[in-house]
Amino acid sequence: MIDPALSTVLSSASDPREVFDRIAVVSLPMVTRFRGITVREAMLLRGPAGWAEFSPFLEYVPAEASRWLLAALEYATNEVPTPLHDTVPVNGTVPACTPAEVPAVVARYDGVSTFKIKVAEHGLDSLPEDLARISAVRDAAPEALLRLDANGKYADLGQGQQALRAFAEFDLQYIEQPVMPVEGLAEIRAWIADEGLPLRIAADESIRKAEDPYRVAALGAADVVIVKVQPLGGVQAALRVVEGTGLPAVVSSALDTSVGLSAGTALAAALPGERLACGLGTSSLFESDVVTSPLRAHGGVLPVGRVAPEDALLTRFRAEPAREEHWRRRLGECWDVLRAEAGC
Ligand SMILES: [Mg+2]
């Protein structure tokens, strides 16, 4: 459902250029391959309230990508909800590295008090290395809260249970997505309760669309939900789904530039209830960004506020004409999807 204010904007403009006075497409080099890509393409749009990002992944069809445009439309035309905080804590990320590499990874995150540790890279086969890595993080950051992310890599319930039983020895904040199907998460969570294990489950991959969090909550599949502004259709839409589930939420990025990350901070700063460190410290994955000072954590926190890209960087990282054309076409298609949804 589209907000009445945004419906009004959509019905008044058959062409997105009537709403956005500047539109830029950038192609930003990444530090390492991530999600199979080494450059991240993003469209940046300026509206009356400021700059917003529209960067659905390339394989997304207009129906799905239109949620991302709805988020950009909202952020570029509306004021954000009143922030309850002026900074948001972020987590550090420990990749599937060796225990010997852990101290250097942890040391990169000044002031960070929550670490997310990647596990299950090769499913259950990774368990011995995973346990050694968790121990190494615990040694390197004895006071920190630790959470795990399995990215749904345990092949079945039995594998997940075997791993979780081993993980239960550590004092963990939660484990993200041990198995992929949401029904599987629900079964694992019921098993955790039966066994009386001190573990909480977070749903990440299970939440891609606005209706997903309700399904996660209805099935009792998670204790925590991971939410992202763009896929859920904007800051207000994300706030509504979080409220609807009644679960604590962690705001995460969709590999956004600093412009998209700033919308993430707006959501994180407006969330009521339990404050969990966000997964918004992802600008370090970019070799370059659209601002000279990318939205990076200092002292473990990100500032809350809008970000405007710099002209020189928009020029320097401007996408090739054919790619720019592709994104303009995509913008038009998604705009039409939103207008149809708004009844235009
Ligand atoms: Mg995850």
Class of the largest domain in CATH? Alpha Beta
Overall radius of gyration: 20 Å
Helicity range: 25-40%
The ligands found in this model are: magnesium ion
Please report which band the strand proportion falls in: under 5%, 5-15%, 15-25%, 25-35%, 35-45% or over 45%: 15-25%
Family: Belongs to the mandelate racemase/muconate lactonizing enzyme family. MenC type 1 subfamily.
Function: Converts 2-succinyl-6-hydroxy-2,4-cyclohexadiene-1-carboxylate (SHCHC) to 2-succinylbenzoate (OSB).
Domain Mandelate racemase/muconate lactonizing enzyme C-terminal: 99-192
EC number: 4.2.1.113
Describe the structure.
- With 344 residues, the chain is α/β, with parallel strands linked by helices.
- The chain folds into two domains: 4-79 and 311-341, Enolase-like, N-terminal domain (Enolase-like, domain 1), CATH 3.30.390; 87-303, TIM Barrel, CATH 3.20.20.
- Helix content is 38%, strand content 18%.
- It has helices spanning 4-12, 62-77, 102-107, 127-140, 157-167, 182-195, 212-218, 229-232, 235-245, 258-270, 311-316, 321-341, and strands at 22-34, 37-47, 50-54, 87-89, 92-94, 114-118, 145-149, 172-176, 201-203, 224-227, 249-251, 301-303.
- The strands form three sheets. A seven-stranded parallel beta sheet has the order 5-6-7-8-9-10-11. A three-stranded antiparallel beta sheet has the order 1-2-3, sandwiched between helices. Strands 4-12 form a two-stranded antiparallel sheet.
- Strand 5 (92-94), helix 3 and strand 6 form a beta-alpha-beta unit.
- The mean pLDDT is 95.
- The site of magnesium ion (MG) has 5 residues, from loops.
- Residues 149, 151, 176-177, 204 line the site of magnesium ion.
